[in-house]
Amino acid sequence: FPDHPAPLVGPDETSAVRTIAFDVKRWPGKLYLGLQVSGDPDFHTPLVAYDLDINGLPVGSPRAFQLGASSPQKGSSPARVCGDLAFHPKQPILYAVGDGFLGFALFSLDSNGEPVIGREWPKVYYTSDNNGKASVRTTTDGNQLCLGTYQKIEIISLVRQTLSQPSGAQAVGLPELINESLYKSYKSYNLLVNGYVQLTAADNAVYYV
């Protein structure tokens, strides 16, 4: 199966699938790929969505999506690599990160699991760490987003105050900002590891290599 709707255009262009994601309970008919393409400086759609038939096989043509600008600096080029994907466990949100992408993208998913593209989506957030992100996971309760970057783990709250819940707070899947670059709840941890951090998360623990 092709991993992108556009064919490779030159003898030096190569494509590699960096990550695969699916949620068989909520969107059994959808498969997501994160790509890295080399040899094409104009490539900037590294997230790919495929439809699946009842046997789990890809059908139809894949769709490709941009993650957003690689950095918050004005005029920065679009992110070119999607290295990891994660779903929010309670909200229809897909998170995407990649090499050279100094933040993370949030895609809202419709009832069929298709990324919503419009004026407000995808949303892109950046962190104070000036490195790309190698991995992304939410805690299993959906309250925190965990990012693996160079020799560091970043943790961002996904809980916002709301009047619709008796507790006054809800895991909405979106970080809460004080301003465009400062999160209301953000923590980072330096690690004694050589290189970029790969991680997974539970409610009260983050496991990494």
Structure description:
- The chain is globular, with a radius of gyration of 17 Å.
- It has about 210 residues and is mainly beta.
- It has strands spanning about 15-25, 25-40, 45-50, 60-65, 85, 95, 105-110, 125, 135-140, 145-150, 150-155, 160, 170, 175-180, 180-185, 185-190, 200, 205-209.
- A hairpin with a 2-residue loop joins β10 (about 145-150) and β11 (about 150-155).
- The protein is built from no helices and 18 strands.
- It starts with 13 loop residues before the first strand and ends with a strand.
- The chain has a four-stranded antiparallel beta sheet, with no helix packed on it. Strands 5-6-7-8 form a four-stranded antiparallel beta sheet, with no helix packed on it.
Quick rundown:
The chain has 209 residues and is mostly beta strands. It has no helices and 18 strands.
The helix content is: under 10%
> What's the end-to-end separation, in Å?
31 Å
Number of strands: 18
- In terms of per-residue confidence, which ranges show pLDDT below 50 for 5 or more consecutive residues? none
Which structural class is indicated by helix and strand composition? Answer: mainly beta
The number of distinct helices, counting runs of at least 4 residues, comes to 0
Overall pLDDT: 88
Largest sheet: 4 strands, antiparallel
What's the overall geometry? globular
